[in-house]
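To: structure subgroup
Subject: Chain for Friday's discussion

All,

I'm putting the inputs and outputs inline so they're searchable in the archive.
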Amino acid sequence: MSLRDTAFSRRDLFRFGGLASLAAIAGPSLAACASPGTTDDVLRIGVLMPLSGTNALLGQSSWEGVQMAVNERNERGGVGGKRLEVVLADVPDVNTAVSEARRLVFNNNIKLGLGTYGSALSTAASEVFARTGNSFVELGAVAAEITQRGYDRVYRINAASDKMTQQALRFAAEYLAPQLGKPPADLNVMMVYEDSNYGQSVTASAEAAATEHGITISEHEAYSAKQTDLSSTVARIKAAQPDVVVAVSYAADAVLLGRQMRDAGVKVGAFIGCGGGYTLSEFREALGDIADGVFDADFPQPLINPDAAPGIEEFLDRYQQAYGKMPDAGYPQVNYTGASWVFDMLDSLAGDDDPDRFHEAATSFKAPVGSSVAAWGYELDEHNQNTLADHYIMQWQDGELRTVFPSEVAVAEPQLITPFGA
């Protein structure tokens, strides 16, 4: 029995960064061995997350949100009267995402998969489910193409990258431009991005958002997230002298970029990170006070107006009880929200995971904005993309990532602080 069949050893638990409490709360939520799929008594779903490798930190956070939703639903009697079990797959890279998706579909008879945090991982895994006539629901990856390939059994509950950049450029036009004493059209905006599927997708959507808000992106700088030295990228930022940097990074490269901007004395008017590494508490822990002032366009975060995200305080209490810590980012609450809605859909089907019936449930299900701990609502468009999910603007202030824009979800006012101690 292996990790791929969700039998965690003590060594695995610590290697993945999951606290020992993971084992204590998992209980019957995890299918210990290869399963026959859904039965009259058990509803089995597949969950694919990067629990090892470079994206393990965010993959683990995403899994914790799904796990909370699974455990909560089982405590309430299951889904449609069936006990809910998860066959969990670790997918650290694209090749593994393909092979694990195939294992879930062909070996475990899984008809519904959830995942995956990473855009490249989602594109690969969802392809397998879609081409075999099964269902796949993405809860966290943002690349536009995931729901634009014509697969009617691939769904996405979280907002796509266009919402992220729309919010970032709207914030630049409505708040940063006046604060910097320039009209939006005169802002010198530079895009800096890691060059994977994720970074390219976010950057592509930024162009349309910039045009919408009267902004021109004057410079583009791509780099590999695997680089251990970003000094050439930092030199180009310094030479461009941008008013605003919009950056797309994962965890390690976000920290590296911040440190090297500090070391090079690079001064910019404002710095907006787009999700990824800029959201994590580890980003602030690694950089200390020089992280204060950095803006972050991303999924909803724990410090959000509870009037807009009903139940968030109770969710955070349950999370702390389960994991002995507060969330290090918003990924648990977003994945919890999406998984909970999927379970509502399955509950309406008495626990039937037939792809055709699930399609009917997923496309007819509705939830208004402000009805979840993510502040989101739910309504799919013709591409099976949830139109009522959004990204917001947070800022690192005094060591906390506080929601600052738009006002209806904010818990603090934005501040124009030079980032990275420059």
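Points worth raising on Friday:
The longest strand covers residues 42-49.
The mean pLDDT is 90.

D.
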